[in-house]
Amino acid sequence: MLFSLRIEVSLPADVPQQQKDDLRRRENDRAIELMKKGKIRRIWRVVGEVSNISLWDADTLEELHANVGSLPLYPYMKVKVTPLIEHPVTAAWKGQNGDLPPF
Amino acid sequence: MLFSLRIEVSLPADVPQQQKDDLRRRENDRAIELMKKGKIRRIWRVVGEVSNISLWDADTLEELHANVGSLPLYPYMKVKVTPLIEHPVTAAWKGQNGDLPPF
Amino acid sequence: MLFSLRIEVSLPADVPQQQKDDLRRRENDRAIELMKKGKIRRIWRVVGEVSNISLWDADTLEELHANVGSLPLYPYMKVKVTPLIEHPVTAAWKGQNGDLPPF
Amino acid sequence: MLFSLRIEVSLPADVPQQQKDDLRRRENDRAIELMKKGKIRRIWRVVGEVSNISLWDADTLEELHANVGSLPLYPYMKVKVTPLIEHPVTAAWKGQNGDLPPF
Amino acid sequence: MLFSLRIEVSLPADVPQQQKDDLRRRENDRAIELMKKGKIRRIWRVVGEVSNISLWDADTLEELHANVGSLPLYPYMKVKVTPLIEHPVTAAWKGQNGDLPPF
Amino acid sequence: MLFSLRIEVSLPADVPQQQKDDLRRRENDRAIELMKKGKIRRIWRVVGEVSNISLWDADTLEELHANVGSLPLYPYMKVKVTPLIEHPVTAAWKGQNGDLPPF
Amino acid sequence: MLFSLRIEVSLPADVPQQQKDDLRRRENDRAIELMKKGKIRRIWRVVGEVSNISLWDADTLEELHANVGSLPLYPYMKVKVTPLIEHPVTAAWKGQNGDLPPF
Amino acid sequence: MLFSLRIEVSLPADVPQQQKDDLRRRENDRAIELMKKGKIRRIWRVVGEVSNISLWDADTLEELHANVGSLPLYPYMKVKVTPLIEHPVTAAWKGQNGDLPPF
Amino acid sequence: MLFSLRIEVSLPADVPQQQKDDLRRRENDRAIELMKKGKIRRIWRVVGEVSNISLWDADTLEELHANVGSLPLYPYMKVKVTPLIEHPVTAAWKGQNGDLPPF
Amino acid sequence: MLFSLRIEVSLPADVPQQQKDDLRRRENDRAIELMKKGKIRRIWRVVGEVSNISLWDADTLEELHANVGSLPLYPYMKVKVTPLIEHPVTAAWKGQNGDLPPF
Q1: Of F69, C62, E66, I66, nearest in space to A87 by CA
Q2: Between chains, do G61 and E49 touch, taking CB under 8 Å as contact?
């Protein structure tokens, strides 16, 4: 199953710099682990904002919730989850052309 | 350049069924052309809604605008464009693991 | 998988009464079919509104989308889908007391 | 009487960890008590969020207010109450099939 | 049980004047019936708007829904229901002074 | 003149408990004074929320403002004032039945 | 008593031009009558919009409602009423300087 | 040029009382200076709120910005500026009756 | 004086194509006239939307309102006007470097 | 590529004055550097607000993000990015009159 997540991160200004650096380093490490497991499929920065848009794969809703909640910055995130399915245009493409081009 | 588009389509109820069918068939054809040209990279249906989320590639902002406007259902669409760039986590992944896994 | 749906129905005032009656009768029949299949688990009317809150079961996101879209009033609905998982309090209850009481 | 509640919990970041743990333990205990009394009928976690959706039974509005207010995390909650009644589809089901299947 | 209702009425401009007059006359008659039964306790016009605020009594949620839905203008209404209980200040008043002054 | 007020109170979490108790006791005393003077006519708690809905009488707008501002919790309130007048249904009732039933 | 009103007018595009002209002429005439009576004290156009901001005097809330409702364009208006009182700065001015300068 | 300003003031609760008193005294003094110069033409308190509505005169946009920014409470204000021009009804009045009555 | 305008145009779907073409041609002609007079300084299309952002010069607020209202599509526009002044950074630039570079 | 940015700055009240002055001085310096490089093309203050509207040039989305993020006040900003392209009216002007007049 595929989900689009829009995540806004707001670290309070009074979190000490060292703690911020530590949080961001651990966030990066955990995100890469989730990419390695194929759970985060893609992630992009929204231009000009401290937000990101990401695509997540999950076998179950429980797995998705656990994976999102395992991010060290989770307590500072506002998360919006949108469940996705194949669009008819994609199905039509595959019928005509086989697999989607790599992306 | 990569852009995320959230598109809501609202065809007025009083458009005759034949015109609706014709619009949807031409919409499908044009979307597949844009996928063939690598301009629409991915498109998904939002579960339970007549909305979709898509990822568009464009060399210029003018090209993106022309391509979106070339969709036959464009006059019935509400479009939200979000410009995207690589997220630091993706850069870190590539440094460690090379290309992203196919998706 | 469990999903909470909030659905607002707005039939345009100029739909002829006979068509409205027909739509509502077919809506009722289809909803009962979905209840028999265990896909709509519960559905309630929101007091004072032409809205309802329902709980849907689905094996896949595709199945959920197809079932919601099969409702005859779907073209007149505004649908909001919220994916749900077990709450820790429910898990704690089950550990102490076994199955939830019938509801 | 049945009510759907959507509750968002926001514990300030500067509440000491021990106090948080204590609040959450007491919250869990009180919620289980309310389930035992048949007052909280069901409760689910919203996927990806620190929110939940729950169904409450109450003989009176006063009872509902007192029970919600008895939760230790109540001072940190934003609560939205939606009163519910039986949907005509449920009535039609019962006329044809008797009791709803267990859920 | 007491409920505060905020109701906005929007009769489409193209409803013929005679039908509008008929609807308003029947609305008035039904509202007075509901006042006689003690179901609408009070109703006020919001200054400058085609909206009203009213206080409804109901033995059950089903009764409230049926009574609101029995208003001839119901198909043209946007309704917001707020369940109310006694405020501690009222309780304190009654302890000191007995019944509330007539209103 | 009659006004409906919707008031949300948000006492910051870090106000010491003794000060909160003192504020609430003085708030209660002042509200009862205003009821004795016939200025607060009715006040109800909104079920599940730290909000209330109240009906205020005032000879002038200045009087209303002064009375609301005299509440000890005023600095922590978000207030929405809605001016009300008699609804045509009430006028029709009175023409037919004389005074409204006590409430 | 003084009230600030923000009024947005939206005449449907399909009202015949002659009817529009007639409505606007009668609107103008009625507004001038209300100015003569000292009920509309001032009225301004919001730059770039089909909206206006006006200051209304009224002895009672009923009078204000009747006067606003007597405008021929009232069925096409969205009205927001804000009750106003003297600001402490104005009171201080008057104490020092007497009447406000003409405006 | 005339502008309508809606200003909401929110002094943080933890500003010491003496500093608040000082700010309010200096705010009052500066506002009276601006009235003397004919820059603030009128100012009213919104009933029940810590907001005000005021009418400002300015020869240039720069002057308006400087005058608003010179208020000691400016760092604690949320300001909404609406540029105004003469309404056709006012022009028609003047054509018929000369100057507007004093206000 | 400089103003930023955000304009959304929504031509109803049932305006005949010939009338739409005529409106757009006259809109284009009038906009070019306003550019020649130096009143519209710049205008851009918002990517993916039927909206535009423009910068307008005006000697008076009345002139701005008349010029915006002279656009043939004005009855179909939603307009938001934002008055602008020089930013301190621009002033600092000019002090150091003279005129801004052409744009 | 051209982008319109609307930026609201909210420096917390408890940032020490010296740090504020330092931030603003460095913000000014960085903004002038970006103007020198032709990256910030124009910037204006919104009248009456601590907001600004600016026009940015960028060869890539990455460059835009890096330049906005290089502003010392970036952690205190709320940024909204709108991608712009040439409007047909501008194209028509250029066809008739050549370059746009300096601005």
Answers
A1: C62
A2: no
